[in-house]
Design brief:
Length: 338
Amino acid sequence: MEKGPNFKIIGNASEREKEKMTNEVSNSLFRHLESMPEDKRKRLEREEYQKSEKEIAVTGFANRKTNQLMQEVGVMPYDIPLENYHIVPSELYANEFGGGVGISYAMPQAAAFNAKYCRNNIVGFGLSVLHETLHLKGRLVIRAYEEEDGKTGKKLYRSGVSVLSPEFEKDHEHFLGLHEGIVSEIEKKSAKDLFGLPELEKEKKWIESDKAKELKKKISNEEGISEDDIMWVDMEGGNSWDIYYTEQRKVIDYLCSEMCKQFPEKFHNKDGAFKIFLKTHFTGKLIEIAKIIEETFGEGSFRLLGNMDKSKESGILHLEALKKARLRKLKAGSPNLF
């Protein structure tokens, strides 16, 4: 098993500086606390919560599940240390990371989670850990560049299928919506395995009960969430957990469906088509999926997909645009590439 991610450094820095940076990044991947400012490090060490047995169990599951998926697509697996996952008080999370449930940082291979949402929902925490671990283990490419003072700086350039703008004053991230859709779809597909943990036997028994199913249906009707996307609901129905990025996942589902129609000999079902997206997430090699999508939806469709962000509106608009592109492609009667 690898000790860490197989990352790559690109950019206009000298080869000597790139080699030096490679060593620095390699050494810091699993020692992220040492690279933090002392005041922030001490506060984190003082305030973060010690993990419970169940929290340790679901974190271990996230490593095992992602390693299994990596091996399935021919990528060397590796474990992220337990101490790289931090559960912190809501106030600390808001001050350091903003809003939300969890956040990950690819270069130091670390993730933080908002205790407000995670400590009272072990299923939600487990799915969130899996989500962020998938982000951490996606393809990693770092851009090295010379700063005005002559020093060499570094910036994340590739993470999974996402491609960040090479212009440092811009924060645009190409394929961000696709990235989150892929990760969230894997998260959903893995939920059944999470409930298979011995430590979650009680949670599994409850969520499979008739009462839990009734509560899920009630939440689905009231909030307009698909029952299939609701992974957890407590006995009072007040604490639930659903899979995010619904519209982006609908886009991926449509892509897979049409890819099966375009290439029936290559893709026998949507799960088989989705495996191409899974593989691309871990390898970062966009050429294969780009060719398939362009042949299925027409020239320029892959670039169109790259513009989808993670908002609900963007997912809806891009699904409609891809449907129109597919119709034009079918009318044109272009032959298969494969």
